[in-house]
């Protein structure tokens, strides 16, 4: 069952998907820009976790966390890098 995320900024969903695709490509994963969520299968395979398109009831919370953590952690690092870059250029609104 997939979750529907509700972003604080309306219209941010597409930008977040684009960011995910770009970040995971830089991490060395093959990402379909039209379906960036599918990178989770490649990450799971690399980690040795048997993730399937449906029916993952046997998946432990720990395994799911490893998959999501790899993707989310990479995205957070990139967002921090982007914010630091913007701050260093004096682009922050204070």
Which key features would you list for this structure?
mainly alpha; 0% strand; 3 helices; 94 residues
Cα-atom radius of gyration = 15 Å
Largest sheet: none
Overall structural class, as computed from helix and strand content, comes to mainly alpha
How large is the share of residues in beta strands?
Answer: under 5%
End-to-end distance, in Å? 41 Å
Structural shape: elongated
- Could you report the average pLDDT, rounded to the nearest whole number? 89
Instruction: State the helicity in percent bands.
Output: 55-70%
**How many E strands?**
0
Secondary-structure topology with pairs:
Elements: H1 12-26, H2 39-47, H3 61-88
Helix pairs in contact: 1-3, 2-3
Structure characterization notes:
- There is one protein chain.
- The protein has helices spanning 12-26, 39-47, 61-88.
- With 94 residues, it is mainly alpha-helical.
- Helix 2 (39-47) crosses helix 3 (61-88).
- The longest helix is centred in the C-terminal third of the chain and has 28 residues, at 61-88.
- It is elongated.
- The N and C termini lie far apart (41 Å).
């Amino acid at each position: 069952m997939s979750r529907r995320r509700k972003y604080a900024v309306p219209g941010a969903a597409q930008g977040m998907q684009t960011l995910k695709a770009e970040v995971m490509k830089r991490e060395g994963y093959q990402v379909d820009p039209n379906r960036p969520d599918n990178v989770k299968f490649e990450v799971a395979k690399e980690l040795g976790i048997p993730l399937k398109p449906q029916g993952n009831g046997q998946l432990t919370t720990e395994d799911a966390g490893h998959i999501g953590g790899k993707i989310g952690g990479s995205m957070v690092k990139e967002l921090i890098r982007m914010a630091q870059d913007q701050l260093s250029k004096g682009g922050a609104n204070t």
